[in-house]
Amino acid sequence: MIPKHSIYLDYNATTPTHPEVVKAMLPFYKDEYGNASSIHTKGRAAHAALEDARSIIGNFLGTESVDIVFTSGGTESNNFAIKGVCFKNKEHGNHIITSSIEHMAVLEPCKFMQSQGFDLTCVNVDEYGLVDPLDIESAITDKTVLVSIMHANNEIGTIQPIEEIAAIIKKLNQKRIAENKPRIYFHTDAVQAFGKIPLDVETLGIDLLSVSAHKLYGPKGVGALYIRKGTEISPLLSGGHHERGLRAGTENIPAIVGFGKAVLLAKKNLNQNKNIEILRDKLYEGLNKKIKDIKLNGHPTKRLFNTLSVSFKGLDEESIVVNLDLKGIFASAGSACSSGSIEASHVLEAIGVSKEWIKGSIRFSIGSSTTDRDISYCLKEIPNIIEHLRSMSFK
Ligand code: PLP
Protein backbone atom coordinates (compact mmCIF):
# COMPACT_ATOMS: atom_id res chain seq x y z
CA MET A 1 0.00 0.00 0.00
CA ILE A 2 1.37 3.41 -0.95
CA PRO A 3 0.95 5.87 1.94
CA LYS A 4 -1.07 9.06 1.25
CA HIS A 5 1.61 11.18 2.84
CA SER A 6 5.22 11.66 1.83
CA ILE A 7 7.08 13.52 4.52
CA TYR A 8 10.82 13.54 4.02
CA LEU A 9 12.67 14.12 7.28
CA ASP A 10 16.09 12.82 6.23
CA TYR A 11 17.79 15.96 4.89
CA ASN A 12 21.08 15.09 6.64
CA ALA A 13 21.26 11.92 4.51
CA THR A 14 20.66 13.87 1.34
CA THR A 15 18.52 16.70 0.00
CA PRO A 16 16.33 16.91 -3.09
CA THR A 17 18.12 18.68 -5.93
CA HIS A 18 16.65 22.19 -6.15
CA PRO A 19 14.77 22.78 -9.45
CA GLU A 20 16.91 25.88 -10.12
CA VAL A 21 20.01 23.73 -9.67
CA VAL A 22 18.71 21.20 -12.22
CA LYS A 23 17.89 24.10 -14.58
CA ALA A 24 21.42 25.48 -14.25
CA MET A 25 22.94 22.05 -14.92
CA LEU A 26 20.94 21.05 -18.02
CA PRO A 27 22.72 23.24 -20.63
CA PHE A 28 26.00 21.62 -19.61
CA TYR A 29 24.63 18.21 -20.59
CA LYS A 30 22.94 19.41 -23.78
CA ASP A 31 24.94 22.17 -25.48
CA GLU A 32 27.91 23.16 -23.36
CA TYR A 33 29.31 19.64 -23.06
CA GLY A 34 32.93 20.62 -23.71
CA ASN A 35 35.90 19.35 -21.73
CA ALA A 36 37.19 22.19 -19.54
CA SER A 37 40.75 21.35 -20.62
CA SER A 38 40.02 21.84 -24.35
CA ILE A 39 41.10 25.14 -25.85
CA HIS A 40 38.31 25.49 -28.42
CA THR A 41 35.12 27.49 -27.82
CA LYS A 42 33.20 24.66 -26.16
CA GLY A 43 36.12 23.85 -23.89
CA ARG A 44 36.50 27.49 -22.93
CA ALA A 45 32.78 27.74 -22.09
CA ALA A 46 33.10 24.71 -19.79
CA HIS A 47 36.25 26.16 -18.25
CA ALA A 48 34.54 29.50 -17.59
CA ALA A 49 31.63 27.69 -15.88
CA LEU A 50 34.09 25.66 -13.80
CA GLU A 51 35.90 28.77 -12.63
CA ASP A 52 32.62 30.60 -11.92
CA ALA A 53 31.51 27.80 -9.63
CA ARG A 54 34.93 27.73 -7.95
CA SER A 55 34.75 31.43 -7.18
CA ILE A 56 31.17 31.12 -5.81
CA ILE A 57 32.33 28.42 -3.39
CA GLY A 58 35.54 30.26 -2.48
CA ASN A 59 33.56 33.43 -1.89
CA PHE A 60 31.03 31.65 0.35
CA LEU A 61 33.92 30.31 2.44
CA GLY A 62 35.65 33.70 2.63
CA THR A 63 38.61 32.70 0.48
CA GLU A 64 39.98 32.87 -3.07
CA SER A 65 38.80 30.44 -5.71
CA VAL A 66 42.35 29.13 -6.16
CA ASP A 67 42.08 27.48 -2.73
CA ILE A 68 39.16 25.26 -3.82
CA VAL A 69 39.70 21.81 -5.37
CA PHE A 70 36.66 19.97 -6.75
CA THR A 71 36.20 16.34 -5.77
CA SER A 72 33.51 13.65 -6.07
CA GLY A 73 32.01 14.53 -2.65
CA GLY A 74 32.60 14.63 1.08
CA THR A 75 34.14 11.16 1.26
CA GLU A 76 36.79 11.97 -1.32
CA SER A 77 37.49 15.39 0.21
CA ASN A 78 38.09 13.80 3.62
CA ASN A 79 40.27 11.04 2.15
CA PHE A 80 42.25 13.62 0.18
CA ALA A 81 42.80 15.86 3.21
CA ILE A 82 43.80 13.05 5.57
CA LYS A 83 45.85 10.80 3.29
CA GLY A 84 47.22 13.71 1.27
CA VAL A 85 48.57 15.59 4.32
CA CYS A 86 49.84 12.44 6.06
CA PHE A 87 51.69 11.02 3.05
CA LYS A 88 53.22 14.37 2.15
CA ASN A 89 54.37 15.08 5.71
CA LYS A 90 55.37 11.59 6.82
CA GLU A 91 59.02 12.61 7.14
CA HIS A 92 57.95 15.16 9.77
CA GLY A 93 55.75 12.96 11.94
CA ASN A 94 53.32 10.06 12.06
CA HIS A 95 50.56 11.07 14.44
CA ILE A 96 46.93 12.00 13.68
CA ILE A 97 44.31 13.26 16.12
CA THR A 98 40.58 12.94 15.49
CA SER A 99 37.43 12.50 17.58
CA SER A 100 35.37 9.45 18.42
CA ILE A 101 32.24 10.85 16.73
CA GLU A 102 33.59 11.55 13.24
CA HIS A 103 31.85 10.27 10.14
CA MET A 104 33.22 7.01 8.72
CA ALA A 105 34.60 9.08 5.84
CA VAL A 106 37.12 10.45 8.38
CA LEU A 107 37.55 7.48 10.71
CA GLU A 108 38.29 5.00 7.92
CA PRO A 109 41.02 7.07 6.19
CA CYS A 110 42.54 7.65 9.64
CA LYS A 111 42.50 3.88 10.26
CA PHE A 112 44.04 3.36 6.83
CA MET A 113 46.89 5.69 7.81
CA GLN A 114 47.37 3.50 10.91
CA SER A 115 48.00 0.60 8.54
CA GLN A 116 50.69 2.80 6.95
CA GLY A 117 52.54 3.27 10.24
CA PHE A 118 50.71 6.29 11.67
CA ASP A 119 49.54 6.51 15.28
CA LEU A 120 45.97 7.60 15.85
CA THR A 121 44.50 9.35 18.88
CA CYS A 122 40.70 9.49 19.00
CA VAL A 123 39.70 12.08 21.61
CA ASN A 124 36.50 11.40 23.52
CA VAL A 125 33.52 13.72 23.63
CA ASP A 126 31.21 14.70 26.50
CA GLU A 127 27.58 13.60 26.92
CA TYR A 128 26.49 16.20 24.33
CA GLY A 129 29.08 15.16 21.78
CA LEU A 130 31.40 18.12 22.37
CA VAL A 131 35.16 17.82 22.03
CA ASP A 132 37.12 19.60 24.76
CA PRO A 133 39.82 21.73 23.02
CA LEU A 134 42.12 21.07 25.99
CA ASP A 135 41.94 17.33 25.21
CA ILE A 136 43.26 18.12 21.73
CA GLU A 137 46.06 20.19 23.24
CA SER A 138 47.07 17.34 25.58
CA ALA A 139 46.95 14.80 22.75
CA ILE A 140 49.35 16.77 20.51
CA THR A 141 52.90 15.40 20.43
CA ASP A 142 56.07 16.32 18.51
CA LYS A 143 54.97 13.75 15.93
CA THR A 144 51.49 15.21 15.26
CA VAL A 145 51.02 16.25 11.64
CA LEU A 146 47.22 16.44 11.40
CA VAL A 147 44.20 17.18 13.59
CA SER A 148 40.81 16.39 11.99
CA ILE A 149 37.68 17.41 13.90
CA MET A 150 34.27 17.64 12.25
CA HIS A 151 32.35 20.90 12.24
CA ALA A 152 28.83 19.57 12.87
CA ASN A 153 27.90 15.98 13.55
CA ASN A 154 25.65 14.24 11.02
CA GLU A 155 23.74 12.15 13.59
CA ILE A 156 23.20 14.44 16.56
CA GLY A 157 24.00 17.84 15.03
CA THR A 158 26.43 18.96 17.77
CA ILE A 159 28.66 21.82 16.57
CA GLN A 160 32.29 21.63 17.67
CA PRO A 161 34.38 24.54 19.04
CA ILE A 162 36.49 24.67 15.85
CA GLU A 163 37.77 28.21 16.43
CA GLU A 164 39.03 27.35 19.93
CA ILE A 165 40.81 24.24 18.67
CA ALA A 166 42.32 26.27 15.81
CA ALA A 167 43.60 28.86 18.29
CA ILE A 168 45.41 26.14 20.27
CA ILE A 169 46.97 24.70 17.11
CA LYS A 170 47.97 28.19 15.92
CA LYS A 171 49.75 28.89 19.21
CA LEU A 172 51.65 25.57 19.02
CA ASN A 173 52.49 26.21 15.36
CA GLN A 174 53.96 29.62 16.17
CA LYS A 175 56.29 27.89 18.62
CA ARG A 176 57.12 25.17 16.08
CA ILE A 177 57.84 27.73 13.34
CA ALA A 178 60.10 29.70 15.71
CA GLU A 179 62.00 26.47 16.39
CA ASN A 180 62.17 25.67 12.68
CA LYS A 181 59.96 22.62 13.10
CA PRO A 182 57.19 21.50 10.70
CA ARG A 183 53.66 22.62 11.47
CA ILE A 184 50.46 20.80 12.43
CA TYR A 185 47.60 20.96 9.91
CA PHE A 186 43.98 21.34 11.00
CA HIS A 187 41.21 19.77 8.88
CA THR A 188 37.46 19.96 9.45
CA ASP A 189 34.75 17.84 7.85
CA ALA A 190 32.15 20.56 7.27
CA VAL A 191 29.88 18.42 5.08
CA GLN A 192 26.86 18.87 7.38
CA ALA A 193 27.50 22.50 8.31
CA PHE A 194 28.24 23.90 4.83
CA GLY A 195 25.21 25.72 3.42
CA LYS A 196 23.37 25.51 6.74
CA ILE A 197 25.48 27.95 8.74
CA PRO A 198 27.90 30.64 7.53
CA LEU A 199 31.47 29.34 7.44
CA ASP A 200 34.54 31.52 6.96
CA VAL A 201 37.88 29.76 6.75
CA GLU A 202 39.74 32.72 8.26
CA THR A 203 37.39 33.07 11.22
CA LEU A 204 37.49 29.31 11.75
CA GLY A 205 41.28 29.26 11.41
CA ILE A 206 41.42 25.91 9.62
CA ASP A 207 43.79 24.68 6.89
CA LEU A 208 41.54 22.19 5.13
CA LEU A 209 37.73 21.98 4.96
CA SER A 210 35.58 19.33 3.25
CA VAL A 211 32.18 20.03 1.68
CA SER A 212 29.64 18.12 -0.40
CA ALA A 213 26.91 19.44 -2.74
CA HIS A 214 24.14 16.94 -2.07
CA LYS A 215 23.64 18.11 1.52
CA LEU A 216 22.60 21.60 0.32
CA TYR A 217 20.12 20.86 -2.50
CA GLY A 218 22.90 20.32 -5.04
CA PRO A 219 23.64 17.17 -7.08
CA LYS A 220 25.19 14.01 -5.67
CA GLY A 221 28.74 13.00 -6.50
CA VAL A 222 30.41 16.41 -6.31
CA GLY A 223 32.17 18.18 -3.47
CA ALA A 224 35.23 20.26 -2.75
CA LEU A 225 38.19 20.58 -0.46
CA TYR A 226 39.41 23.97 0.71
CA ILE A 227 43.20 23.90 1.01
CA ARG A 228 44.96 26.86 2.64
CA LYS A 229 47.85 28.22 0.57
CA GLY A 230 51.15 26.69 1.59
CA THR A 231 49.61 23.42 2.83
CA GLU A 232 51.85 20.48 2.02
CA ILE A 233 49.54 17.84 0.48
CA SER A 234 49.87 14.97 -2.01
CA PRO A 235 47.13 14.28 -4.57
CA LEU A 236 45.06 11.11 -4.15
CA LEU A 237 44.63 10.58 -7.87
CA SER A 238 47.42 10.68 -10.40
CA GLY A 239 46.79 11.44 -14.05
CA GLY A 240 46.21 14.66 -15.96
CA HIS A 241 46.93 18.13 -14.64
CA HIS A 242 43.37 18.98 -13.69
CA GLU A 243 42.69 21.06 -10.57
CA ARG A 244 46.27 22.42 -10.52
CA GLY A 245 47.64 18.89 -10.46
CA LEU A 246 45.85 18.14 -7.20
CA ARG A 247 42.99 16.00 -8.52
CA ALA A 248 43.36 14.28 -11.85
CA GLY A 249 40.27 13.51 -13.95
CA THR A 250 38.00 15.46 -16.29
CA GLU A 251 35.89 17.77 -14.15
CA ASN A 252 32.17 16.96 -13.89
CA ILE A 253 31.07 20.36 -15.21
CA PRO A 254 27.25 19.92 -14.96
CA ALA A 255 27.56 18.79 -11.33
CA ILE A 256 30.04 21.53 -10.49
CA VAL A 257 27.76 24.16 -12.06
CA GLY A 258 24.87 22.73 -10.01
CA PHE A 259 27.03 22.89 -6.89
CA GLY A 260 27.75 26.58 -7.55
CA LYS A 261 24.03 27.29 -8.02
CA ALA A 262 23.17 25.41 -4.82
CA VAL A 263 25.68 27.53 -2.89
CA LEU A 264 24.16 30.75 -4.26
CA LEU A 265 20.72 29.54 -3.18
CA ALA A 266 22.02 28.50 0.24
CA LYS A 267 23.49 31.96 0.74
CA LYS A 268 20.15 33.56 -0.16
CA ASN A 269 18.18 31.18 2.06
CA LEU A 270 20.26 31.30 5.24
CA ASN A 271 17.47 33.39 6.79
CA GLN A 272 15.01 30.45 6.45
CA ASN A 273 16.90 28.56 9.10
CA LYS A 274 14.93 30.01 12.00
CA ASN A 275 11.67 28.60 10.53
CA ILE A 276 13.25 25.17 10.22
CA GLU A 277 14.44 25.36 13.82
CA ILE A 278 10.92 26.27 14.98
CA LEU A 279 9.51 23.21 13.20
CA ARG A 280 12.23 20.96 14.64
CA ASP A 281 11.53 22.20 18.16
CA LYS A 282 7.79 21.80 17.67
CA LEU A 283 8.41 18.19 16.70
CA TYR A 284 10.55 17.47 19.75
CA GLU A 285 8.31 19.28 22.23
CA GLY A 286 5.23 17.52 20.83
CA LEU A 287 6.87 14.08 20.97
CA ASN A 288 8.22 14.75 24.44
CA LYS A 289 4.75 15.71 25.67
CA LYS A 290 2.97 12.73 24.14
CA ILE A 291 5.52 9.93 24.58
CA LYS A 292 7.01 8.55 27.80
CA ASP A 293 10.65 7.49 27.97
CA ILE A 294 12.02 9.64 25.16
CA LYS A 295 15.42 11.30 25.22
CA LEU A 296 17.09 14.01 23.14
CA ASN A 297 20.61 13.22 21.87
CA GLY A 298 23.15 15.94 21.18
CA HIS A 299 23.69 19.42 22.57
CA PRO A 300 20.49 21.29 23.48
CA THR A 301 21.71 24.54 21.86
CA LYS A 302 25.11 24.05 20.16
CA ARG A 303 23.42 21.95 17.49
CA LEU A 304 22.46 22.21 13.82
CA PHE A 305 19.08 23.96 13.65
CA ASN A 306 17.53 21.17 11.56
CA THR A 307 18.69 18.05 13.42
CA LEU A 308 16.72 16.08 16.00
CA SER A 309 18.09 12.80 17.28
CA VAL A 310 15.83 11.08 19.79
CA SER A 311 15.89 7.72 21.52
CA PHE A 312 12.77 5.78 22.44
CA LYS A 313 13.61 3.53 25.38
CA GLY A 314 13.37 -0.22 24.87
CA LEU A 315 12.53 -0.10 21.15
CA ASP A 316 14.28 -1.18 18.02
CA GLU A 317 15.15 1.55 15.50
CA GLU A 318 14.54 -0.59 12.45
CA SER A 319 10.95 -1.35 13.49
CA ILE A 320 10.40 2.35 14.13
CA VAL A 321 11.78 3.36 10.72
CA VAL A 322 9.69 0.71 8.93
CA ASN A 323 6.51 1.78 10.74
CA LEU A 324 7.21 5.45 10.05
CA ASP A 325 7.74 4.53 6.40
CA LEU A 326 4.33 2.80 6.30
CA LYS A 327 2.81 6.13 7.35
CA GLY A 328 4.80 8.03 4.72
CA ILE A 329 7.34 9.51 7.15
CA PHE A 330 10.93 9.08 5.98
CA ALA A 331 13.47 9.32 8.78
CA SER A 332 16.68 7.56 9.56
CA ALA A 333 17.91 5.03 12.10
CA GLY A 334 21.12 6.39 13.59
CA SER A 335 23.17 7.50 10.62
CA ALA A 336 21.83 6.92 7.11
CA CYS A 337 25.34 6.82 5.70
CA SER A 338 25.90 3.54 7.53
CA SER A 339 22.49 2.09 6.67
CA GLY A 340 22.42 -1.61 6.08
CA SER A 341 24.57 -2.01 9.17
CA ILE A 342 22.83 -3.12 12.34
CA GLU A 343 25.68 -2.10 14.60
CA ALA A 344 24.84 0.51 17.23
CA SER A 345 25.79 4.03 16.27
CA HIS A 346 29.37 4.79 17.33
CA VAL A 347 28.30 8.41 17.89
CA LEU A 348 25.56 7.51 20.37
CA GLU A 349 27.92 5.06 22.06
CA ALA A 350 30.57 7.78 22.35
CA ILE A 351 28.15 10.17 24.09
CA GLY A 352 27.25 7.41 26.53
CA VAL A 353 23.70 6.50 25.45
CA SER A 354 22.98 3.25 27.28
CA LYS A 355 21.99 -0.05 25.66
CA GLU A 356 18.27 0.14 26.41
CA TRP A 357 18.05 3.56 24.74
CA ILE A 358 20.58 3.31 21.92
CA LYS A 359 18.69 0.71 19.89
CA GLY A 360 15.61 2.89 19.62
CA SER A 361 17.33 5.99 18.23
CA ILE A 362 15.93 7.92 15.28
CA ARG A 363 17.30 10.93 13.47
CA PHE A 364 14.77 13.39 12.07
CA SER A 365 16.41 16.03 9.90
CA ILE A 366 14.25 18.83 8.62
CA GLY A 367 14.64 20.87 5.47
CA SER A 368 13.32 23.62 3.25
CA SER A 369 10.16 21.78 2.13
CA THR A 370 9.03 20.71 5.60
CA THR A 371 5.76 22.39 6.61
CA ASP A 372 3.90 22.94 9.85
CA ARG A 373 1.25 20.50 8.58
CA ASP A 374 3.94 17.85 8.11
CA ILE A 375 5.01 18.24 11.73
CA SER A 376 1.40 18.13 12.95
CA TYR A 377 0.89 14.90 10.99
CA CYS A 378 4.05 13.44 12.56
CA LEU A 379 2.82 14.42 16.01
CA LYS A 380 -0.45 12.60 15.33
CA GLU A 381 1.14 9.41 13.94
CA ILE A 382 4.46 8.92 15.77
CA PRO A 383 3.00 8.56 19.30
CA ASN A 384 0.61 5.85 17.98
CA ILE A 385 3.51 4.01 16.33
CA ILE A 386 5.61 4.11 19.50
CA GLU A 387 2.69 3.02 21.66
CA HIS A 388 1.90 0.17 19.28
CA LEU A 389 5.53 -1.04 19.15
CA ARG A 390 5.85 -0.84 22.92
CA SER A 391 2.64 -2.81 23.45
CA MET A 392 3.98 -5.50 21.08
CA SER A 393 7.39 -5.67 22.74
CA PHE A 394 5.82 -6.28 26.18
CA LYS A 395 3.68 -9.21 25.00
N1 PLP B 1 30.99 13.69 6.32
C1 PLP B 1 29.79 13.86 6.91
C2 PLP B 1 29.73 14.55 8.24
C3 PLP B 1 28.64 13.37 6.30
O1 PLP B 1 27.47 13.51 6.90
C4 PLP B 1 28.75 12.70 5.06
C5 PLP B 1 27.57 12.10 4.42
O2 PLP B 1 26.57 11.87 5.03
C6 PLP B 1 30.03 12.59 4.47
C7 PLP B 1 31.12 13.09 5.13
C8 PLP B 1 30.22 11.92 3.15
O3 PLP B 1 29.84 12.81 2.11
P1 PLP B 1 29.50 12.25 0.65
O4 PLP B 1 28.17 11.56 0.77
O5 PLP B 1 29.40 13.50 -0.21
O6 PLP B 1 30.59 11.37 0.24
Question: What does this molecule look like?
Answer:
α4 (74-88) packs parallel to α5, α6 (133-139) packs parallel to α7 (162-178) and α10 (273-290) packs parallel to α14. The chain is of the alpha/beta class. α7 links the parallel β5 (144-148) and β6. It has a seven-stranded mixed sheet, sandwiched between helices. Strands 9-10-13-12 form a four-stranded antiparallel sheet, with helices on one face. A two-stranded parallel sheet has the order 1-11. It has helices spanning 19-25, 27-30, 41-60, 74-88, 104-115, 133-139, 162-178, 201-204, 253-269, 273-290, 317-326, 346-350, 355-358, 372-393; strands at residues 7-8, 68-71, 95-99, 119-123, 144-148, 185-189, 208-212, 223-227, 294-297, 307-312, 329-330, 332-333, 361-365. Helix content is 41%, strand content 14%. Pyridoxal-5'-phosphate (PLP) binds next to α4. Pyridoxal-5'-phosphate binds next to α4.
In short:
The protein is an alpha/beta fold.
Q: How many strands appear in the DSSP assignment?
A: 13
> Which structural category fits the helices and strands?
alpha/beta
Give me the side-by-side strand order of the main sheet.
2-8-7-6-5-3-4
| Separation of the first and last Cα atoms | 27 Å
Write down the Rg.
Answer: 22 Å
Largest sheet, in brief, is:
7 strands, mixed
Percent of residues in beta strands: 5-15%
Low-confidence stretches: none
Spell out the key features of this protein:
395 residues, alpha/beta, four-stranded antiparallel beta sheet, 41% helix, globular, binds pyridoxal-5'-phosphate
Task: Lay out the secondary structure.
Elements (H helix, E strand, L loop, with lengths): L6 E2 L10 H7 L1 H4 L10 H20 L7 E4 L2 H15 L6 E5 L4 H12 L3 E5 L9 H7 L4 E5 L13 H17 L6 E5 L11 H4 L3 E5 L10 E5 L25 H17 L3 H18 L3 E4 L9 E6 L4 H10 L2 E2 L1 E2 L12 H5 L4 H4 L2 E5 L6 H22 L2
Parallel strand pairs: 1-11, 3-4, 3-5, 5-6, 6-7
Antiparallel strand pairs: 2-8, 7-8, 9-10, 10-13, 12-13
Pyridoxal-5'-phosphate binds next to helix 4.
